[in-house]
Amino acid sequence: MFIVNSGKIQNILEYNRKKAVEYAHAWAFRRNPQYYDFEKIGGDCTNFASQVIYAGSNIMNYTRNTGWYYVNVNNRSPSWTGVDFLYKFLVNNSSRGPFAEEVNVKDVQPGDIVQLSFNKPDDFNHSPVIVSTGTIPDVSNIQIAAHSIDRDYYPLTNYDWAYIRFIHIKGVRK
Fold this sequence. Notes:
Elements: E1 2-5, E2 8-13, H1 17-27, H2 45-57, E3 70-72, E4 75-76, H3 78-81, H4 83-92, E5 97-103, E6 113-117, E7 129-132, E8 143-146, E9 151-155, E10 163-173
Antiparallel strand pairs: 1-2, 2-10, 3-4, 5-10, 6-10, 7-8, 8-9
């Protein structure tokens, strides 16, 4: 699909939700050796979410500091492993790589991301991946996969969050 944006023609690819969810299931209780495990230095949830998104998008954005990429533990963007940085990249990305919007729960699909705050509205600190929903998605029928405390097919309602936001991956720019 081609979309004209600010006078530029952009090639928009579909986000492969099937591949994203397959990756989430494959690595929910293990660590892919291609990526560093951040578990002991702050948590691995957003690293895992980024891996899942990459499995479904297959395109990184190598823009220094504001992009979304992973080469190795010392050469990665803040958005690859930081909860708020991932959110800001996805909802503001107008160039190469995956792009998203914050949506109501009823608009999420498997392969999307949910972010949780356990404290206050501006302090999101967990990024589980949605692996299944009911016919009409609702917090009561969403299941997630996550790292930090490894989970798969885990009911979203088992978390005790203070604030929640849903990030729907709309597509991938080539």
